Structures are given as structure tokens and as C-alpha cells.
């Protein structure tokens, strides 16, 4: 008797989000590569129903689906370090999407090893930054893995993609009327496509969910945010674990409409794009943290740190996370946080917030030096001599007849 044994198919581990692109990718990979698809959904705190996404992966044809809860990992290894670095790309975008990519890459590569998969896949298009973050991240951790990017190889317009999904009976949420591309995690929500592609058009109110306003116009709220070594640990005296603290702040600040970002940004591949972000906790925490640093850090460290922060934001945005420079900068940032402990008072208002107070046991602020009142202990003679020396090079230039001619 002879048995017919089917050679097992090769496996590919797909970064699955539950959305249109990755759902369509499952059946596309099966069709074009004849591989078994292991769908991995990494939970970075996106508010979607993960059970539904799991079902959708199976319905779309995945041979196996798994959900990895990476929320704590995300907070402690990516979000908190980014708060310490006041991380924003082009001074505005708190990098929610970008920061989650290396984390997802780590998980993908790990699953690929366990499942003995030869390939990994992602649903990124050829126009965005995410493809760079996935490809470079994956190759930095395991250069032998083959990378499959269905949406990049197979050029489909969004409409065609929706049509393909319909034909293949893949259940998806988007309809032709709401063509937004959305990426969400605990640190923020990124919105692209549709009318947003016209940078002159005001974004319609309907695109906002985290920051839909649930407060009266004249309502205000004061929050005291406590930091320990650069990390937020409590709100209004209540100690909170990372995930909970960020979730809570997203809700509270979001209810005032705080955290909307509307910008045209420079993508790595050279295209400019109009992006909308909702990141209530991120904008409040980074500003509060920055103001606490101003109080406890000496001027030279503070100013030098700005330069490094900008570089780190670029490296994060550019998908260069698993690199020596990123790692060295992260060590620098970590070391700089030793005294960033204290409290910041933040006032929330209709679509706005401001830091209205700060306090720290490591404060370098000295009232007796700063005051113009009679408690002043500052010796004015110090200033006179200091300024003479400070300006000495230019005084000498002038004496040698080389004063600046043009004004
Ligand atoms: N422009 C942002 C970035 O590159 C967000 C991308 C969001 N992706 C999306 N599918 N909406 O980090």
C-alpha cells in the first residue's frame, strides 16, 4: 500500500491588523505564493475588537491566527523612552505608528523562528514609511527571512481593493463612502486618504474619534501629572500602571478635543503627505515632561538634548530602530532622566491645554536668585565681570579695527 503524502507548504508569518489591506493580503499570498499564512495580530492597544479580527483572519483564509498582547512591552520599551526623548517628528507628530513598527517586527521575527517560517509579510503599500520600517527592521533582526509585501507588488487602488475583498468574500469594515486609512495604537491614531489628501480642505469632524468633543465649551479641568525619572506614574495622586495611565489620559484630554494634529509631513521616500493624528495623551505627556526637564536640567544638557531628540525622532521615523546610533542615543536619553522627577500641573480646556505649574525635589530653580524682590541675594558685580569676558573676543576685534561692517 502506498500513501500519498503532501509535502507541507512553506509558511509565511503575516503582520495582520484586521483591516482591509492585510485581510486581502491573506488570500493574495495564498493565490500567488502557495504558502500557508500565519496571521499575527500584535495588540499595541488599538481599540478594535481583537476577537473579530481573529475571526476575520480565519475567514480570509489564514491557516493559523494568533493575538499577541504587546501593550506593556509597547509602553515600557517604546512609549516611555519616547516621552523621555520628547519624541516628535518634524516637531509635531508623536510617532505612534512609527514606534509600533519595530515592536511588531520583533514579534514577527520571533513567531517566524518558532513556526519555522521562511518568510514574513506585511500589508504596506509602496508609498509609505511603514514598508521601510518593516523591511529594514526585519532584515536587521534576521536577514535570511524573505519579505512579501502584497500591496506593494500588486498595485491596487483602494476601490479595486475593496472590490477584490468583496469578490473573495473577505469581511471588511470600510465602504466606498469612507475611504480613510487608519492606523491606531495606544499612543495615537493616524488618519490618511479621502478628502484629507487636499491639504487646503479642513478635515471633516467625522474623522475624529478619540478627540470628538464631549465637554462644554467653557469647561476646564486641572490635572496633576507625576513623573519619576522621566516616566509618568500618577494622575491627581492616583498611581497608575503605564497602559492604564495612557488610556485614561487619552480619554480625559480627548474629551476636550485636545491632541489633534494636522500637518504636511516629509515621508522617507521623498513624498510630502497630509496627515491627521489624534494623540491626546502623547501631546499632554510630552509637553508636561518637557516642562519638568526645563526645571531640573542644567542648560547645556537641556540644549544638547534637543539635538539628540530630533535625531532620534528621525531615526524612528526612518525605520532605523535596530541600529547602533539609535541604541547609543537611547542610552544617552535614559541617563539624562535621573533627576526628571516631580509634578506638573496641566489645565485642560476646549481644544487646548497648558502647563500652569511645575514642582520637583531636584528643581534648579532658585527663588532667591530669580527674584526682583528684596530677598534677592544675587551679586550684580558678577554680571559686570562676566559680561566683559563673554564679549572679549568682539571687543578685541573692534580694537583691531575689524568691527562688523554690514548690519
Ligand atoms: N505618516 C505616519 C507615519 O508614517 C502615519 C502612517 C499611518 N498609516 C496609515 N495606514 N494610516 O508614521
Sequence-ordered SSE layout with sheet pairings:
Elements: E1 11-15, H1 20-33, E2 36-43, H2 50-59, E3 64-69, H3 71-84, H4 96-115, E4 119-121, H5 130-141, E5 146-148, H6 150-153, H7 158-167, E6 181-185, E7 188-192, E8 221-228, E9 231-235, E10 238-239, H8 242-254, E11 260-266, E12 272-278, H9 280-296, H10 299-317, H11 324-336, E13 342-349, E14 352-359, H12 367-370, H13 380-390, H14 392-399
This protein binds arginine (ARG).
Cα(first) to Cα(last) distance is 99 Å
Cofactors and ligands: arginine
CATH-defined fold name of the largest domain: Argininosuccinate synthetase, chain A, domain 2
Spatially, the strands of the biggest sheet line up as 3-2-1-4-5
| CATH hierarchy: architecture of the largest domain | Alpha-Beta Complex
Question: Can you describe this structure?
Answer:
With 407 residues, the protein is α/β, with parallel strands linked by helices. The protein folds into three domains: 167 residues, Rossmann fold (3-Layer(aba) Sandwich); 172 residues, Argininosuccinate synthetase, chain A, domain 2 (Alpha-Beta Complex); 33 residues, Single alpha-helices involved in coiled-coils or other helix-helix interfaces, CATH 1.20.5. Helices cover 42% and strands 20% of the residues. The protein is built from 14 helices and 14 strands. The strands form three sheets. Strands 3-2-1-4-5 form a five-stranded parallel beta sheet, sandwiched between helices. A five-stranded antiparallel beta sheet has the order 10-9-8-13-14. Helix 1 packs across helix 7. The longest helix has 20 residues. The model has no long low-confidence stretch (mean pLDDT 94).
Amino acid at each position: 500500500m502506498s500513501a500519498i503524502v503532501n509535502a507541507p507548504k512553506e509558511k509565511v508569518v503575516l503582520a495582520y491588523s484586521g483591516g482591509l489591506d492585510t485581510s486581502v493580503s491573506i488570500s493574495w499570498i495564498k493565490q500567488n505564493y502557495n504558502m500557508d499564512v500565519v496571521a499575527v495580530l500584535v495588540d499595541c492597544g488599538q481599540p478594535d475588537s481583537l476577537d473579530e479580527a481573529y475571526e476575520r483572519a480565519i475567514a480570509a483564509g489564514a491557516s493559523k491566527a494568533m493575538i499577541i498582547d504587546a501593550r506593556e512591552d509597547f509602553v515600557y520599551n517604546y512609549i516611555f523612552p519616547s516621552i523621555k526623548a520628547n519624541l516628535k517628528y518634524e516637531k509635531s507628530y508623536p510617532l505612534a505608528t512609527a514606534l509600533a513598527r519595530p515592536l511588531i517586527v520583533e514579534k514577527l521575527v520571533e513567531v517566524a523562528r518558532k513556526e519555522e517560517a521562511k518568510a514574513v509579510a506585511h500589508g504596506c503599500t509602496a508609498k509609505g514609511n511603514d514598508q521601510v520600517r518593516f523591511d529594514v527592521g526585519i532584515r536587521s533582526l534576521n536577514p535570511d527571512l524573505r519579505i512579501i509585501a502584497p500591496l506593494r507588488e500588486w498595485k491596487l487602488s483602494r476601490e479595486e481593493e475593496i472590490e477584490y475583498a468583496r469578490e473573495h468574500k473577505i469581511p471588511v469594515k470600510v465602504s466606498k463612502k469612507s475611504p480613510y486609512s487608519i492606523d491606531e495604537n495606544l499612543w495615537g491614531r493616524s488618519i490618511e486618504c479621502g478628502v484629507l489628501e487636499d491639504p487646503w480642505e479642513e478635515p471633516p469632524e467625522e474623522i475624529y474619534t478619540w478627540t470628538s468633543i464631549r465637554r462644554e465649551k467653557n469647561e476646564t479641568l486641572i490635572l496633576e501629572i507625576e513623573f519619576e525619572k522621566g516616566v509618568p506614574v500618577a494622575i491627581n495622586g492616583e498611581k497608575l500602571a503605564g497602559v492604564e495611565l495612557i488610556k485614561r489620559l487619552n480619554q480625559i484630554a480627548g474629551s476636550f478635543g485636545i491632541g489633534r494634529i494636522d500637518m504636511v509631513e516629509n515621508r522617507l521616500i521623498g513624498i510630502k503627505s497630509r496627515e491627521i493624528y489624534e494623540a491626546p495623551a502623547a501631546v499632554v505627556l510630552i509637553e508636561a515632561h518637557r516642562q519638568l526637564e526645563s526645571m531640573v536640567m542644567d542648560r547645556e544638557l537641556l540644549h544638547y538634548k534637543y539635538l539628540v531628540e530630533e535625531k532620534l525622532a528621525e531615526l524612528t521615523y526612518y525605520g532605523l530602530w535596530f541600529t547602533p546610533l539609535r541604541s547609543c542615543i537611547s542610552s544617552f536619553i535614559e541617563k539624562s532622566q535621573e533627576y526628571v522627577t516631580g509634578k506638573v500641573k496641566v489645565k485642560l480646556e476646549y481644544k487646548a491645554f497648558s502647563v500652569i505649574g511645575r514642582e520637583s525635589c531636584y528643581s534648579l530653580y532658585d527663588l532667591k536668585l530669580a527674584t526682583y524682590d528684596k530677598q534677592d541675594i544675587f551679586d550684580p558685580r558678577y554680571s559686570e565681570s562676566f559680561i566683559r569676558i563673554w564679549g572679549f573676543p568682539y571687543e578685541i576685534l573692534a580694537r583691531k579695527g575689524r568691527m562688523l561692517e554690514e548690519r
